[in-house]
Amino acid sequence: MKSIVSAVDDVWSARIRVYESVAPAPPHARRGGCVFYNQAFLNLLLLRRLLVQDPGVIEPLLYAIMAHEVGHEMHQDFSPERAGVSSQTKELEADRFAGYTLEHLNIGLDNIIPYYSLAGDEFGGQARAANSHGVSMSRTAALKNGWDLAEWNQPEDSHSLTEGD
Questions:
Q1: pLDDT one-digit tens code per residue, 89-133
Q2: 8 touches 16 (CB < 8 A)
Q3: Residue 135: pLDDT band by 50, 70, 90 thresholds?
Q4: Three-state SS at 29
Q5: Long-range own/partner contacts, residues 83-89 (CB < 8 A, 24 or more apart)
Q6: Which of 27, 47, 77, 96 has the greatest CB tally within 10 Å of its CB?
Q7: What distance in Å separates the CA atoms of residue 130 and residue 155, rounded to the nearest whole number?
Q8: Which residues of 115-125 are buried (b: 16+ CB within 10 A; e: fewer)?
């Protein structure tokens, strides 16, 4: 995971620290430039919830997941200035950031999209209002939007995402 986050860091000149957590929790970012993951939880997420059976998909999907978490840090989602932004908007912006980053890392979306499309709130995700990630269609659209923005040499944040996008 450290090498994955390091590759994402290289794209953005970020200094994100990554830690393996003993708590069985999903990957998450925290204030101060830290990303946490739990390997047992990731194995459960990838193999049981997302039904990933192709070993060639696991690494690109991990890049997408960790780029999403780095996106929270790069967008300063934990700052007081972003306190009024809804959780869902922040999550969709992090998905867009992940797509943008994957394009810069030359990681295609074709193998990722079928699994990413199962990561929405309607499939058992974090559907609470305080931590809504959005429905799969919105998450996948944001990921593709980020990829397109990078491919077209547009700024990553040149398009504002709202819950309706």
A1: 999 999 999 999 999 999 999 988 988 777 765 656 554 545 677
A2: yes
A3: confident
A4: strand
A5: 86/132, 86/163, 87/129, 87/130, 87/131, 87/132, 87/133, 88/132, 88/133, 88/134, 88/163, 89/161, 89/162, 89/163
A6: 96
A7: 28
A8: bbbbbbbeeeb
Alpha carbon separation from 1 to 16, 78, 141 (Å, rounded) = 12, 22, 25
Alpha carbon distance 105, 23 (integer Å): 30
Tell me the pTM.
0.88
Cα–Cα distance for residue pair 136/25, rounded to 1 Å? 20
> Are residues 37 and 27 in contact, defined by beta-carbon separation less than 8 angstroms?
yes
What pLDDT score was predicted for residue 75? Answer: 95
The token pair at 123 is 């499939």
Distance (Å, rounded) from C-alpha 29 to C-alpha 111? 25
By residue count, the chain amounts to 165
Residue 18: what are its φ and ψ, rounded to 5°?
-120, 135
Q: Which of 134, 39, 54 is nearest to 86 (CA)?
A: 134
Count CB atoms within 10 A of the CB of residue 108: 12
